[in-house]
Design brief:
Oligomer: single chain
Distance between the termini: 59 Å
Structural class: alpha/beta
Helix content: 40-55%
Shape: elongated
Number of strands: 15
């Protein structure tokens, strides 16, 4: 498939400007996407744009990633109900370096190939403008009527928008439009891509290029991602799912994809993996035959985790998943890192005991019923032990067991389990 056919099959096109396909068919084309620099990590909400560029580069075209150093100091009204927090230059440069490092794992920036990607900061050219210079050289080419007609502006100025829109935000589409103009003149960039909420900003750039330079330029947008229940994609109760493993552990990242619905998984496997269409079609068919096996979700979670964090991190996340749902051992618990261990048992009941109490050892019945409240009484603890339903650190124990400091995981945790599903985390201080 060519680039556009590939995107159409994967459900990744919302709008495409006439002439775009013809331009791409001529040969290697340069396109850009913009990335918000407000954090030092991308999150899964950025992944659609990244996968677009991945497919774009695989099709032989050249990607440019623009970090919005200047626009990040302004704020983008598109799809937003209020202005963003503005950033200082030092923070933007730090975030830019971290984002490029993440992108470099699956986008080629460093080879000698003619379509190796580049990353630029729009502050580098915007900082040269004076206010008078910008309104004289750029502002005169786009009318206020044209800018007011954009949906993003209409929403912010509508009766339901109590806060209105600042002049700073109103000028955003001109600033972004100038980015496209600058890239068209200096890098031969013919195409800008973005989410469907960016269509107005992108077409302002196309119009500016046409009016000021008399040159062609093109636009392509992807659909904004939502889950099958209508909620925003990429958000959980605890916030964003980040690509930085320090912000979101590979285990939690893996679980995010594993826990998608059948409907979402069938959509996401097309968008967030580079598996070929024939393989995806076969996978979806196989899943429909036996949905309880969750083959689709497992494949999706594996592919995306390997893409972002690598195969070793995926294997670790898979092994951690077996702690709750498989036949894990005490050795498995001790192998995983502390962050993953805590992520696995996030939300289970917790108790604290003193490390000094472990020096002489604690009888298992006392440990379960007095030092903690894993069991409501010693009698209940004894009955559970006789029924062979108590495990410490995934190992079955009997009434003779004594809990000692050697049982500690990472020097401070003990995992108690009653039956198959009831876990208790004991923190030793």
């Amino acid at each position: 498939m060519n680039f556009v056919d590939e995107l159409k099959w994967r459900g990744m096109i919302h709008d495409i400007m006439p002439g775009t396909e013809e331009q791409l068919a001529k040969g290697q084309t340069t396109a850009y996407v913009g990335i918000d620099p407000t954090a030092d990590s991308l999150h899964v909400g950025h992944l659609v744009s990244v996968m677009m560029m991945k497919h774009f580069q695989m099709a032989g075209h050249k990607p440019i990633f623009i970090i919005g150093g200047a626009t990040g100091m302004i704020g983008d009204p598109s799809g937003k109900s209020q202005e963003r927090n503005l950033l200082d230059e030092e923070t933007i440069h730090r975030n830019m370096a971290a984002i490029k490092d993440q992108l470099s794992r699956f986008i080629d920036f460093n080879s000698s190939a003619s379509n190796a990607a580049i990353m630029l900061n729009n502050y580098d050219w915007m900082k040269e403008f004076s206010f008078l210079g910008f309104i004289r050289d750029i502002g005169k080419h786009i009318t206020v009527n044209y800018m007011m007609a954009k949906d993003s502006v209409k929403k912010r100025l509508g009766a339901e928008a109590a806060q209105g829109m600042s002049f700073t935000e109103f000028t955003y589409q001109l600033v972004q439009g100038y980015d496209f103009l600058h890239l068209r003149k200096n890098h031969g960039c013919m195409l800008q891509m973005g989410g469907s909420d960016q269509w107005g900003n992108i077409t302002t750039g196309v119009e500016l290029i046409r009016r000021k330079e008399g040159l062609d330029a093109y636009a392509l947008t992807w659909p904004l991602m939502t889950k099958s229940d209508g909620k925003k994609f990429g958000k959980t109760e605890s916030g964003n799912i980040w690509l930085d493993p320090q912000r979101t552990s590979p285990y939690k990242f893996y679980q995010f994809w594993l826990n998608t619905t059948d409907e979402d998984a069938a959509k996401y496997v097309k968008i967030f993996t580079i598996l070929p269409p024939a393989e995806i079609d076969a996978l979806i068919d196989e899943h429909q035959q036996a949905p309880h096996l969750r083959k689709l979700q497992k494949t999706l979670a594996k592919e995306v985790t390997c893409l972002i964090h690598g195969e070793e991190a995926f294997e670790s996340a898979l092994e951690a998943s077996q702690i709750l749902f498989g036949n894990a051992t005490s050795e498995t618990l001790r192998k995983i890192d502390e962050a993953t261990f805590l992520a696995v048992f996030d939300g289970v009941p917790q108790f604290e005991i003193r490390k000094a109490d472990l020096e002489a050892g604690i009888q298992i019945v006392d440990f379960l019923a007095e030092k903690t409240s894993v069991m409501s009484s010693k009698g209940e603890a004894r009955r559970a032990l006789k029924a062979n339903s108590i495990s410490i650190n995934k190992e079955k124990v009997n009434e003779e067991a004594v809990i000692k400091s050697g049982d500690l995981i990472d020097g401070k945790y003990i995992l108690a389990q009653s039956g198959k599903k009831n876990y208790f985390l004991v923190i030793v201080k």
